[in-house]
């Protein structure tokens, strides 16, 4: 009744799809190769050690100095500071949504937080620059409002919706039977939450935190606009309330003024390379932890 | 037993990964007969059914040994196109699974994907298939409506109509009534009785009364082995093995 | 008794966390909306900038953002969709799938400024597209690829296996099944993901800083090899360049307002579409 079909069309589609599927792999490898190709020449000018541990980033001096330690410390400072904001707020909100919120509150807040997660970073940066920084400068009596602290605060608020969303998903995976078993032995809701639910969702929550951290390290526009941009070595706790210059904002701020192929150009690519591996590390850690989480709760992929 | 053999299952072993789930199955399925496959859950009855139209190809890490012959030709021969096998061996699934398309498009789907797109031919064919599946009177005024608006029993008859449209030689049914209420089940059973005039039907069921009511032959499976295969009347009244008797009389299972 | 106090205290802090989060975000929205709204006028939306950016409108930046976003989606949607189809429907050896999946996850985590570097080195310099809509769109497209892939994957995985089986059992080939059954059923889900990605692309700044964007351009771009003004970059530039900080700040408020409206409306549409779809198919959130 039917004519036999051509099998070659099927094969062609299969090949096209597999080819395109590998483009994402190709892009990842491509990015790495480009960063190496454009970044490695910096080591003709600076030794690896003095690049990574050099305490001065004076790109405009003659001869220029390319030591990224102040930039890296600034990134770490701002990221850690952001964690102090986004972890309690994000995870706390997730627990609230999962445990306390009524169905109606939840069905309003959850999409709302998701939509807020989409606010562009430039808007956060702008808000931080025109509202938060002047406010902090005045209330804390600082010489300038654009500091590592301001960056941490804005970045933390910015990462909160993301952390909340992922943590909430993780909490949703905790089987109802875990809670019921806990209630059945007379535990109240708080005990059930802290002794059963949080430990069960622990690695899922850690994944949320790591991904939030990864986002904070890689965030560019916000820190560029609110951290002040001074590439100085942080030397004490008060540095937290002084301007700093994280790695991402260094790239963004200086790439425009470099000469293609120059030492400065290479130095910025080398910073990109370091950022790339930083976030790669975070992602692999998040992946491993979330895999353990899925195995623990018996969730199939 | 001088009926024509339509499907010949020849020493079939089947493996999910390292686990063997069918052991040396051998049976002949006769033309224009209803053959039931019964047995406790997990005995391999659905697995065997899905082997007859190579549906298990879709499950990764599975392996088959032996042959399944359709009209004397091994459907697992590497030269055979799996698509042609499935054109000849249709399947109705446990849960009604109409596509999220109109009733008309559901029935016409099998024809369209096989290159028959003439509109008037399709209309005639859709009408005939729906009539054969005893659904025409209920849906003739709303062929353009989504198939998902039908009741469960209607959906299952739609799935049967969809299968009839491509005129297969063999129709496999995997517990087709288990998700339906008694009235809908009755309709499906009547339909099966009517369809066997034209088609060879293999039906997996966990309902022994159903097997007894509708089938000519019955195969009893347990733990991946074919325990007994004979005329339905014999299996239910006078089985040759005690274990079959224990099962059909409801002593376990 | 202590049990109860602990519980009340704990719940108090959880409620506090939500309140603080919502408060901060509301303050942000309040300032941008209230101050931005004052700036918006018909001229602001439709005219080109005048008098060293202190007057006129930001229409070229709005148009530029539109072009860049459109370009990015045109580039990434087919690739992303094909990739998702391959991963979900063609089930090749799991080792290969794993490699591709891991690289997608990692690509998703690469900082946006690094994409900018890649775009600069490859599209602007190596392929010699220059600072242009093309370079910027390609860079943004690569950046957004992982989110399109995972959204499409999620939508494809939500399609019941029984649809595929029914289609194959009727003698359809794999590609026919994908084209006629799987993709149409998954379309709303794929759309949601794509729309969310559009929102993200429209707001990105770092990837276009060195690949596409310019602070000031006379008139509108005429070809894909032209550089463009873009809303997010324009906000940054207004705050850091130029000679009239006070007036520029107001214009930046206006731009932030427009950008926020665009992005929020886009994500709200996506979230609503998904909600409708979920209730239609009876899937859980």
Q: How many domain units of chain A?
A: 2
**Large-scale geometry of chain B:** globular
Parts with pLDDT < 50 across at least 5 consecutive residues of chain B = none
Oligomer: heterotrimer
Structural class of chain B: alpha/beta
CATH superfamily of the largest domain in chain A: MetI-like
Distance between the termini of chain B: 30 Å
Identify the CATH architecture of the largest domain in chain A: Orthogonal Bundle
Our Rg estimate of chain B from Cα atoms comes to 18 Å
Q: Which percent range describes the beta-strand content of chain A?
A: under 5%
Question: How would you summarize this macromolecular structure in one to three sentences?
Answer:
The complex is a heterotrimer of chains A (301), B (253) and C (285). Chain A has helices at 7-39, 48-53, 69-100, 103-116, 121-139, 148-172, 176-184, 189-218, 221-226, 247-254, 263-297, and strands at 57-58, 65-66. By secondary structure, chain A is mainly alpha-helical.
Task: Using brief descriptors, characterize the structure shown.
heterotrimer, A: 301 residues, mainly alpha, MetI-like fold, 2 domains, two-stranded antiparallel sheet, 11 helices, globular, B: 253 residues, alpha/beta, six-stranded mixed beta sheet, four-stranded antiparallel beta sheet, 10 helices, 10 strands
What does this structure look like?
The complex is a heterotrimer of chains A (about 300), B (about 250) and C (about 280). Helices cover about 70% and strands about 0% of the residues of chain A. Chain A has about 300 residues and is an all-alpha fold. Chain A contains 11 helices and 2 strands, in the order ααββααααααααα. In chain A, helix 6 crosses helix 8 and helix 10 (about 245-255) runs antiparallel to helix 11. Chain B contains 10 helices and 10 strands. In chain B, the strands form 2 sheets. A 6-stranded mixed beta sheet of chain B has the order 6-7-8-3-9-10, with helices on both faces. Chain B has a 4-stranded antiparallel beta sheet with strand order 2-1-4-5, covered by helices on one side. In chain B, helix 3 (about 105-115) crosses helix 4 and helix 3 (about 105-115) packs parallel to helix 6. Chain B starts with a strand and ends in a 5-residue tail after the last helix. Chain C has one domain: MetI-like (MetI-like fold, Orthogonal Bundle). Chain C has 11 helices and 2 strands, in the order ααββααααααααα. Chain C has helices at about 1-40, 40-45, 60-90, 95-110, 110-125, 135-155, 160-170, 175-205, 205-210, 230-240, 245-280, and strands at about 50, 55. A two-stranded antiparallel ribbon of chain C has the order 1-2. Chain C starts with a helix and ends with a helix. Chains A and C meet through helix 1, helix 3, helix 4, helix 5 and helix 6 of A and helix 1, helix 3, helix 4, helix 5 and helix 6 of C.
């Amino acid at each position: 009744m039917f004519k036999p079909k051509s099998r070659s069309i099927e094969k062609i589609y299969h090949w096209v799809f597999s080819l395109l599927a590998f483009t994402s792999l190709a892009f990842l490898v491509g990015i790495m190769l480009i960063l190496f190709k454009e970044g490695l020449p910096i080591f003709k000018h600076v030794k690896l050690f003095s690049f990574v541990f050099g305490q001065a980033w004076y790109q405009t001096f003659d001869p220029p100095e390319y030591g990224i330690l102040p930039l890296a410390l600034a990134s770490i400072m701002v990221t850690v500071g952001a964690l102090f904001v986004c972890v309690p707020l994000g995870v706390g909100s997730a627990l609230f949504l999962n445990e306390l919120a009524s169905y109606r509150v939840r069905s309003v807040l959850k999409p709302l937080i998701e939509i807020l997660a989409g606010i562009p970073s430039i808007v956060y940066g702008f808000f931080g620059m025109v509202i938060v920084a002047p406010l902090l400068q005045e209330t804390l009596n600082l010489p300038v409002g654009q500091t590592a602290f301001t960056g941490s605060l804005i970045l933390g608020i910015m990462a909160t919706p993301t952390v909340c969303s992922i943590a909430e998903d993780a909490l949703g995976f905790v089987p109802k039977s875990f809670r019921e078993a806990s209630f059945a032995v007379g535990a109240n809701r708080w005990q059930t939450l802290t002794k059963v639910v949080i430990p069960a969702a622990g690695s899922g929550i850690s994944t949320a935190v790591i991904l939030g951290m990864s986002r904070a390290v890689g965030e560019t526009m916000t820190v560029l606009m609110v951290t002040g941009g001074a590439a100085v070595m942080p030397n004490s706790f008060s540095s937290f309330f002084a301007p700093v210059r994280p790695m991402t904002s260094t790239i963004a701020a200086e790439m425009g003024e470099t000469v293609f192929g120059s030492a400065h150009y290479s130095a910025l690519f080398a910073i990109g390379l370091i950022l790339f591996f930083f976030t790669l590390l975070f992602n692999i850690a998040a992946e491993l932890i979330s895999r353990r989480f899925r195995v623990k709760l018996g969730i199939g992929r | 037993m001088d009926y024509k053999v339509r499907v010949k299952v020849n020493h079939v072993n089947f493996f999910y990964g390292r686990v063997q789930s069918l052991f040396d199955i051998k049976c002949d399925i006769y033309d224009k007969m209803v053959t039931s496959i019964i047995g406790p859950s997990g005995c391999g009855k659905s697995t065997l059914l899905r082997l007859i139209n190579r549906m298990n190809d879709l499950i990764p890490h599975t392996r088959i040994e032996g042959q399944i012959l359709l009209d004397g030709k091994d459907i697992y021969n590497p030269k055979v196109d799996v698509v042609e096998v499935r054109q000849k061996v249709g399947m109705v699934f446990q849960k009604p699974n109409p596509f999220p398309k109109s009733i008309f498009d559901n029935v016409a789907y099998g024809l369209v994907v096989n290159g028959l797109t003439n509109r008037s031919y399709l209309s005639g064919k859709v009408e005939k298939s729906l009539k054969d599946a005893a659904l025409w009177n209920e849906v003739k005024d709303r062929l353009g409506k989504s198939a998902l608006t039908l009741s469960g029993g209607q959906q299952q008859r739609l799935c049967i109509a969809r299968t009839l449209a491509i005129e297969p030689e063999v129709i496999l049914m995997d517990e087709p009534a288990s998700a339906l209420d008694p009235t809908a089940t009755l309709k499906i059973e009547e339909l099966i009785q009517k369809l066997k005039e034209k088609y060879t039907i293999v039906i997996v069921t966990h309902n022994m009364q159903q097997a007894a009511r509708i089938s000519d032959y019955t195969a009893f499976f347990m733990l991946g082995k074919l325990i007994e295969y004979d005329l339905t009347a014999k299996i239910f009244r006078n089985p040759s093995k005690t274990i079959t008797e224990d099962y059909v009389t409801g002593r376990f299972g | 008794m202590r049990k109860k106090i602990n519980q009340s205290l704990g719940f108090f802090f959880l409620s506090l966390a939500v309140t603080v989060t919502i408060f901060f975000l509301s303050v942000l929205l309040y300032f941008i909306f209230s101050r931005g709204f004052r700036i918006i006028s018909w001229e602001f939306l439709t005219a080109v900038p005048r008098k060293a950016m202190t007057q006129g409108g930001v229409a070229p930046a709005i148009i530029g953002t539109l072009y860049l976003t459109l370009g990015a989606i045109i580039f990434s949607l087919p690739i992303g969709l094909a990739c998702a189809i391959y991963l979900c429907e063609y089930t090749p050896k799991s080792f290969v799938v794993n490699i591709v999946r891991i690289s997608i996850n990692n690509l998703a985590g690469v900082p946006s400024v690094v994409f900018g570097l890649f775009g600069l080195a490859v599209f602007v310099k190596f392929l010699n597209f220059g600072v242009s809509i093309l370079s910027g769109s390609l860079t943004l497209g690569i950046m957004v690829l992982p989110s399109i892939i995972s959204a499409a994957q999620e939508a494809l995985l939500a399609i019941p296996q029984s649809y595929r089986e029914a289609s194959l059992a009727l003698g359809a080939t794999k590609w026919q099944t994908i084209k006629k059954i799987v993709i149409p059923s998954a379309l709303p889900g794929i759309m949601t993901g794509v729309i969310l990605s559009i929102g993200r692309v429209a707001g990105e700044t770092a990837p276009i800083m060195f690949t596409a964007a310019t602070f000031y351009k006379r008139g509108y771009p005429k070809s894909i090899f032209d550089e463009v003004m873009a809303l997010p970059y324009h906000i940054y530039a207004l705050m850091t360049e130029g000679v009239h900080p006070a007036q520029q700040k107001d214009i930046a408020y206006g731009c932030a307002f427009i950008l926020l409206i665009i992005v929020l409306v886009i994500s709200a549409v996506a979230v609503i579409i998904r909600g409708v779809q979920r209730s239609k198919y009876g899937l859980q959130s």
